[in-house]
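Researcher: Going back to the complex we discussed earlier. I've cleaned up the inputs and rechecked each line, so this should be the final set. Can you rerun the prediction on the complete assembly and write out the structure?
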Amino acid sequence: MMGKRSLVSVVDDDESVRESLPDLLREFGFAAEAFSSAEAFLASDVVSDTSCLLLDIAMPGMSGPELQQELIRRQQEIPIVFITAQGDKAVRPRLLAHGAVECLLKPFSETALLAAVNTALRMRSE
Amino acid sequence: MTPEHITLNGASTDLIGIIDTVDVPIVVVRRDLVIAFFNKAAADVLGFSTSDIGRLPRDIPVLGGLPRLEERCSQVIASGVDCRADFREGDKWFVVRISPYPNADRQVTGTVLTFTNVTAFRASIDQAIYERECTKAILNTVADPLVVLSADQRIQSGNRAFYTMFGVSRDETQGVPLYDLGNGAFDLAPLRQQLIAMLANGHAFQPVEVDHAFTAKGQRTALLDAHPLSFPGHSEHRVLVTFQDITARKQAEAARDLRSEEELGRSEAFLAEGQRLSLTGSFSWMVPTDDITWSEQLYRIFEFDPGTPVTIERINSRVHPEDMPMMNERIERARAGGPDFEFSPRLLMPDGSVKYVNAIAHRSRDAEGRLEYIGAVQDVTQRRMSEDALEKARSELAKIARVTSLGVLTASIAHEVNQPLSGIITNASTCLRMLDADPPNVDGARETARRTIRDGNRASDVITRLRALFSKKEFTFELLDLNEVTREVIALSLSDLQRNRVALQLELAEDLPTITGDRIQLQQVILNLLRNASDAMVDVHDRPRQLLVRTEREDGDRVRVSVRDAGVGVDPRSMNKLFDAFYTTKSDGMGIGLSVSRSIIEGHQGRLWAESNDGPGATFSFSIPSGPESVTNAAPR
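Model: Rerun complete. Updated structure for the full complex:
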């Protein structure tokens, strides 16, 4: 990896996700930060540095889609990959239609994760 | 007194003195027609003076008002017979009497003129004439005929309207009996008897109505009234009869009667239509006589022939045999003068169909104080049938809801299991990558492997916790005492609560009605609420971890269980999400939690809700109907 590593931020209220995902992302060669809520992410200083956002859908307080709208309002157009344990495939097309890069249903494979993050980063650089 | 006086027949001075005291002017004219004498009154009233003695009357100006006086005097002297003449002096009126003046030998030697003042008399006559003319004018302007009758009820006089109305003249009718009028149209017993009674005894007269074809106006209705007339100084009684034309009034009355009859008819039609549309009939039941009056609609409801007599026996013949005891009891109570009543018997029709009716009766008394019930009977068969249909639809909906909540449950389970599975796969992937690195990151791999085990256990826990729900396929409904159910749950979780240093307070209502429900399911709900409350207070260190569990009876025959904590409380923004299937504020917990709890409570026809406390923390409550009713919807009948 050369130069500055792309920052992938994880926003999920599930602690095991916050523990495990950043480690895997770092193994992929990305920089990773984890937040337990949308509010915590917005309050952090990494919003503008984030190249890709791995975002849970259902969270206490602000939900994933609500954070997406808030970022658009703030003109922080970060490519978003939704991750959900909901197991309902019906939400995926709706989220993609609203501009999400991908929607991964938990549990997902590392291949699917890497592909989604790479797609997001390509969109970011375009 | 002048000497000329004395020359007249040698009358004594005394006599002359007497004549002078008479205040009637007296003038004596001699046979040769010269003035021979006048008294003092003649001087005072007519202005005679002594120079007038020996003069001819024509030469005396005051006598100019008596034309042909000398000629008249000559006639009186010649005939020896009095004559009279009217005479006016200024504003005074006199009647002048010219009388022969005989001497002692009975020879007429002249005439005596006496002037009687009739001014006041004449004025009163003028007044009387004036009054009479006024009265006549007034009577003639009265539009109603008036007629005065003599004591033998003969016509004396009428006003103009009278003559016009009857087309007769004054002369034709003068003295004619009233009863001959209009070819005997007024020869009526009530009129005749009353007039005679009034004239004889002063009895009051009751007006008499007479229909008659009047000459002037055609067929009219006249109201005859009579008033006695009596005059001071006259012994004869007369009667004033008035004819009031009341034709217009009678017509208006008739029209009004007709109109109110029409209005009555219309409102009756409205009522009948209203009864028909609302399927409501009305009745009255006169208890002492058992007289029963029914409206048309009530005949239709009972399918009796309209207008046929209704008896209690006939009504009973339609009442469903199963409802007869209730019917008899109501009738008995009503006969005893019981209060207003309402009941809903079924009717069994001859074709075997059943009608549901609602009867309501109000106790009252008629004018004579007799007990009477007035009421209404509504045919509610249609409504009852739609209620039944609605009930059926509702229970089917409840079935669907249970199926749906199974779907929700599945999704919840998937969510709970997918979370740790996701952690396991991610950690395992990381672990492999760390081991594949050069050099291998063994410490990192060990850590991720440890996390993998932890997440695996977590998934296993979820399955364990869900086992109870998986194992039960059907709800078992039984009569339950919620206090007992609550106590059992608390006994099971007491050690947990104590470990978490929760101060438990129980307020269980003593008079709690039983409910119908599934013991295990309800205990899971209560357990879930207790765990949530306990978890909410884990981070509370500055105040007691108070937990209040309360059962109480609610209005509308419901029972409520509430669990109040003093924990972190619920974000008002999240209040409506609390019960969403995938919503959780905890990384580990009961997981399916409130969503499933709500499904269970709704399966018991109840509801589950959360409220923020006034102080710290939140209260979660559920309420379900008491008694055996709730089972009817939960389990198919």
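Model: Worth noting: Chain B touches chain A at residues 411, 414-415, 418-427, 429-430, 433-434, 437, 444, 448, 451, 454-455, 458, 571, 573-574, 580, 582-585, 587 (CB under 8 Å).
Researcher: Good, that matches what I expected from the previous run.
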